Amino acid sequence: MQIKKDKVTGDLLGVGRRKTAVARVRLRAGSGKILVNGRAFDEYFKTEKEQRQITDTLEFVGQRNAVDLSIRCTGGGPNGQAQACKMGIARALCGFSEEAFQPLRDNGFLTRDSRMKERKKYGLRGARRGVQFSKR
Measured between alpha carbons, how far is 19 from 128 in angstroms, rounded to an integer? Predict the structure, then answer.
């Protein structure tokens, strides 16, 4: 896996995607501060499930209070953005410590969930649902 590093600041970069959500993650050594679109992550992601998706990746490799994160999320909804953040954080952590790559990969943190919404087809009401048949 290619490790991306910002040439100016030295931050490690990771991009995560899920459905139509994209999360760009900047990781640097620090004290555990997490910002999402300029706000604290627990303020941006309201539910505990979404917050846990962000912290699970860091706690899995034991870096929760060792790194600072700055995340930019666009597209999708809150759940898709949280899952995109999870993948972006995992990709950035691979550059932070090389021994983290194999456990992250084995536990599915680096695997992209490729499920997308199926497109609507002409002549149908949705992706698969047809129009209702009327006898009279």
Answer: 19
pLDDT tens sequence across 96-131: 888 889 999 999 999 999 999 999 999 999 999 999
Of 50, 44, 57, nearest to 87 by C-alpha is 57
Helix, strand or coil for residue 50?
A: helix
Output the six-digit token pair for 27: 């990781």
Q: Which residues does 25 contact at the CB level (< 8 Å), separation at least 6?
A: 13, 14, 15, 16, 69, 70, 71, 85, 88, 89, 91, 92
pTM to 2 decimal places: 0.89
What is the DSSP-derived secondary structure letter of residue 15? E
- Within a 13 Å sphere around the CA of 125, how many CA atoms are in the beta-carbon half? 5
End-to-end CA distance of the chain: 62
CB 53 within 8 A of CB 85: yes
Q: Which helix (H) or strand (E) holds 34?
A: strand 34-36
C-alpha–C-alpha distance, residues 133 and 74, integer Å: 41
88 — phi, psi (to 5°)? Answer: -65, -40
